[in-house]
Amino acid sequence: MRGKLYFACADNDSACTPEQRATLAETLTAAGVDHQIELYPGALHGFAMSDFPVYDAAAAQHRSQRVLELFAASLYAG
């Protein structure tokens, strides 16, 4: 995989446990994949979807900023 990966992980998410995040990080690192896994403390699964009851505006804004930074660095570089 050549692209950089970004994972915005909710702190309270049974679909992405600390053990799963660790395995993902270890696997991507071993494969030489450029990645970032960011944990959003207090956030619930679906935190970035404004029509979900668990929407967290601050966390969603931070995640959006990170994605835009990734796009700027990857898509618009040189």
How would you explain this protein's 3D organization?
With 78 residues, this protein is an alpha+beta fold. 41% of the residues lie in helices and 23% in strands. The protein has two helices and two strands. It has a two-stranded parallel sheet. Helix 1 (18-30) links the parallel strand 1 and strand 2 (35-44). The longest helix is centred in the last third of the chain and has 19 residues, at 57-75. The two termini are 20 Å apart. The mean pLDDT is 93.
How would you summarize what this structure contains?
41% of the residues lie in helices and 23% in strands.
Strand order of the largest sheet: 1-2
First-to-last CA distance: 20 Å
Query: Helical amount among residues, as a percent range?
Result: 40-55%
Broad structural category:
alpha+beta
How many structural domains does the protein architecture include? Answer: 1
SS element count, helices: 2
* Number of strand elements: 2
The general outline is: flat
Short key terms for the protein model shown above:
alpha+beta; 2 helices; 23% strand; 78 residues
Secondary structure blueprint with pairings:
Blueprint: E1 5-12, H1 18-30, E2 35-44, H2 57-75
Parallel strand pairs: 1-2
